[in-house]
Inverse folding.
């Protein structure tokens, strides 16, 4: 299909490269940062622009911009009436589109993206939503060309999925950062924790998180918990976090 990407950040870059490699024709990369748009366009062999003007032959526009800029971008984009336009935001519904846009939707990849990393989309879950049959058909076709895991999910359910992703990815990564700081205080490099992290992920995959919990809190080992809290005296914020998470685990498994 003929596709235009609006946004040259992490999501826009990953999607542009994946779509180009899958045989779709990228017509243009549009970004308020011309330099980013140009760099991405050079990798995908398409045009680039800073203006929100979509070529009339475009089948699908994917808008991959920050949530706070999404409304403005969608309402200022100029395109043909028959072009399908979809955003990639997990926590934003269909009501963000202008009422005069008839073919709208969502193209949400459940993944954390970083510029410079490569991604295998073949097993990456893609969640789509369309305002009508044409939108659903186009989005399903494009999504299926990238991944074997494509699901239709409405906005209300997708918001819960996005929230679950924040807990499972963003919050967990923040805990890794805390682990790195704490291990450094003991003179250890963060790399010594990686085998533990990998085993935790494998166990979660094999057994499920509900059967994989270990540690002092699940045992309600108050003596160890108090020792840990004392060690965290250098950071009241980490003390508070440790106490809250430990209390949550104890409550979950005490029955």
């Amino acid at each position: 299909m003929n596709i235009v990407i609006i946004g040259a950040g992490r999501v826009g870059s990953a999607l542009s490269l994946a779509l180009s490699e899958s045989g779709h024709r990228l017509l243009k990369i549009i970004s308020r940062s011309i330099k980013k748009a140009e760099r991405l366009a050079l990798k995908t062999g398409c045009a680039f622009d800073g203006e929100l003007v979509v070529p009339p032959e475009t089948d699908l526009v994917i808008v991959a911009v920050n949530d706070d800029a999404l409304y403005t971008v969608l309402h200022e984009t100029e395109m043909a009436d028959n072009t399908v336009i979809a955003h990639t935001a997990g926590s934003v519904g269909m009501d963000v589109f202008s009422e005069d846009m008839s073919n709208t939707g969502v193209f949400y990849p459940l993944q954390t993206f970083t510029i410079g990393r490569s991604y295998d989309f073949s097993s990456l879950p893609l969640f789509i939503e369309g305002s009508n049959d044409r939108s659903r058909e186009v989005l399903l076709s494009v999504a299926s060309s990238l991944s074997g895991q494509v699901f239709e999910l409405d906005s209300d359910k997708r918001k819960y999925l996005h929230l679950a992703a924040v807990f499972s990815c963003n919050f967990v990564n923040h805990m890794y950062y805390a682990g790195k700081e704490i291990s450094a205080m003991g003179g250890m490099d963060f790399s010594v924790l990686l085998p533990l992290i990998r085993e935790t992920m494998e166990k979660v995959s094999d057994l499920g998180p509900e059967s994989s919990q270990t540690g002092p809190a699940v045992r309600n080992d108050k003596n160890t918990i108090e020792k840990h809290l004392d060690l965290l005296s250098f950071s009241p914020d980490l003390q508070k976090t440790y106490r809250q998470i430990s209390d949550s685990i104890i409550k979950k498994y005490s029955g």
